């Protein structure tokens, strides 16, 4: 009897010795106090510099897993509540909405975030927050198109654009979100009619990425292409001369300036549903929307800051101001299925 207590204690001590290091290890991997784990589609040197600055200011280390947006979302689904991820950074409000619908994100809201990010550039419940803006522009041949001929997305269905339009496939999220904005501005029927008109005017069947569309404008395959603004910015500032020359062969046109404005989208971030370091993720989100970080974060990919008090970079400033469609971007996700349907019916493959 006299030995049973020390024996029990010894057992406890042994158990603690076995369990505590394991617990401490697990904490190192995910939930310790000085780390935030980011799943990001971005891999820019400037992001690393920003993360280092964040660490200096807060003592919180930033660990980044970089992969394509679809890969990151698949990984979050696979990992479930065991995921080490705290913050998902990805592109397109439509895709952020999908991540939310799959239960991969959680709502957050702070005064700093709410004052930094305009209402229409974030989820109303705080599941995702816009970080940078991009415009869906018309890239046109400087040789064969007079910008005075250009006006709206709708006008591209006119027969004078027959055999002149370049576009990528309809399954691409940029196109799906753009279609969602057209449906929001009109109806499912008008969206479908627009898609049919564009298909009729295509110079070739849809293929390639946004850069390929620009390349085909320069090569004379077509005269105008629907692309995200930063693709032109990237080319104009590329390391190699061939890319810079390619960028210089197209003009940037912002459609619908006299009505609802040019379709815009965001890259953005959401705190993951099972974030082990939720508070650190919120702090990083606040940092990325702060004036000091916004300029560098947006410029890394030739995008526009979401903050209205931060100026865009030099290349973008050179294109001038434009009127952006004020549609709440959460609508793009909500109309995603309608958009897919409209493309399907119109035969935009
Ligand atoms: Fe892109």
The largest β sheet comes out as: 9 strands, mixed
Q: Which hetero compounds are present in the coordinates?
A: fe (ii) ion
Radius of gyration: 24 Å
CATH class of the largest domain, named Alpha Beta
CATH architectural grouping of the largest domain? 3-Layer(aba) Sandwich
- What is the percent of helical residues? 40-55%
What are the secondary-structure elements, in order, as H or E? HEHEHEHHEEHHHEHHEEHHEHHH
What are the segments in which pLDDT stays under 50 over at least 5 consecutive residues? 1-31
Q: What gross morphology would you assign?
A: globular
Report the average pLDDT across residues: 92
Structural class estimated from helices and strands? alpha/beta
Strand content: 5-15%
The count of strands amounts to 9
CATH level-3 fold name of the largest domain: D-Maltodextrin-Binding Protein, domain 2
Helical stretch count? 15
Characteristics:
46% helix, single chain, alpha/beta, globular, binds fe (ii) ion, 9-stranded mixed beta sheet
Question: How would you describe this protein?
Answer:
- With 349 residues, the protein is an alpha/beta fold.
- Helix content is 46%, strand content 15%.
- The longest helix has 28 residues, at 4-31.
- The chain is globular.
- The protein binds fe (ii) ion (FE2).
């Amino acid at each position: 009897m006299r030995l049973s207590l020390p024996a029990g204690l010894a057992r406890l001590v042994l158990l603690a010795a076995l369990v505590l290091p394991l617990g401490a290890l697990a904490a190192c991997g995910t939930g310790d106090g000085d780390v935030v784990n980011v799943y990001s589609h971005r891999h820019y040197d400037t992001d690393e510099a920003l993360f280092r600055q964040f660490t200096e200011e807060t003592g919180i280390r930033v660990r980044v897993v970089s992969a394509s947006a679809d890969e990151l979302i698949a990984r979050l689904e696979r990992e479930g509540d065991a995921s080490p991820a705290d913050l998902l950074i990805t592109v397109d409000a439509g895709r952020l909405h999908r991540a939310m619908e799959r239960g991969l994100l959680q709502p957050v809201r702070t005064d700093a975030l709410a004052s930094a990010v305009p209402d229409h550039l974030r989820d109303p419940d705080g599941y995702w927050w816009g970080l940078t803006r991009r415009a869906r522009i018309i890239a046109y041949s400087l040789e064969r198109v007079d910008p005075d001929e250009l006006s709206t997305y709708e006008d591209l269905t006119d027969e004078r654009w027959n055999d002149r339009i370049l576009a990528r496939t309809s399954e691409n999220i940029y196109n799906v979100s753009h279609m969602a904005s057209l449906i929001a501005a009109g109806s499912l029927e008008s969206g479908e009619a627009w898609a049919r008109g564009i298909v009729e005017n295509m110079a070739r069947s849809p293929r390639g990425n946004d850069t390929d569309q620009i390349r085909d404008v320069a090569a004379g395959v077509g005269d105008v292409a629907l692309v995200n603004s930063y693709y032109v910015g990237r080319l104009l500032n590329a390391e190699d001369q061939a890319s810079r020359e390619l960028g210089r062969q197209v003009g940037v046109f912002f459609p619908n300036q006299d009505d609802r404005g040019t379709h815009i989208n965001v890259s953005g971030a959401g705190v993951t549903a099972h974030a082990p370091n939720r508070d650190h993720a919120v702090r990083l989100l606040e940092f990325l929307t702060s004036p000091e970080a916004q300029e560098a974060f947006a410029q890394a990919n030739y995008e526009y800051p979401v903050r209205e008090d931060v100026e865009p970079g030099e290349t973008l400033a050179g294109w001038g101001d434009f009127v952006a469609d004020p549609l709440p971007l959460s609508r793009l996700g909500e109309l995603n299925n309608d958009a897919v349907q409209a493309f399907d019916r119109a035969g935009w493959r």
